[in-house]
Amino acid sequence: MKIGILGTGNVGRTIAARLVELGHDVVIGTRDVAATEAKADEPFPAALVTAPEAAAHGELVINATAGQVSVAALHGAGAENLAGKVLIDISNPLDFSNGFPPSLSVCNTDSIGEQIQREFPAARVVKTLNTVTAEIMVYPAKLADGDHTIFVSGDDADAKQTVSGLLREFGWRDIVDVGDITTARGTEMLLPQWVRLMGALGGTGRFNYKLVR
To answer: Which residue, 89, 40, 38, is CA-closest to 66?
Structure first.
């Protein structure tokens, strides 16, 4: 599958590397290719292109940008390049402006997932993977032999099926469809607790929630 990733940080890089490993045709989008390459400590795992080129390339697009700039970053990629496509949103509304621990820039009555769906109504937004650290996103079996839970939220049932298929390629087995895109509020609001748990566990992100029925 042709996949465009928006975001050049650890999450974007980690997902890109795993998708390349799985045989997908991946590019990573940024605002300024030359500037991003100049700042990079190591080579990128996939071709680095402009954000509009990445969005146009992808049959599926992944938003791995910081939540507070996600809507602007997606506008930079071009609404026309997202129209009709499955758009996986991994972002979280973490606000570090007052230091640590972060607060949420949006919560309770809205979410980043919903903001993206409203701004890009022709895109098929699916919220997922935002409740785990980057390594576990793409290698769930590295924790508890993969026996833990990932959530998906979105308005489009077919889009969620497509995303669930990709999650299974990563190795996820317990995939819970929480409901429509408004349910992204709940998964995003797990993050303050996630951050506190990371601190309680000595700074490791190697943990996750397991839904027991």
So the answer is: 89
CA nearest 12: which of 70, 97, 86? 70
Cis peptide before 101 (omega within 30 of 0): yes
User: Which token pair is 2?
Assistant: 């042709």
Distance (Å, whole) CA 207 – CA 205: 6
pTM: 0.96
CB atoms < 10 A from the CB of 103, how many? 13
Spatial separation of the C-alpha atoms in residues 6 and 184, rounded to whole Å? 19
Closest to 166 measured CA to CA, from 48, 18, 67 = 18
80-128: pLDDT as tens digits: 999 999 999 999 999 888 888 888 999 999 999 999 999 999 999 999 9
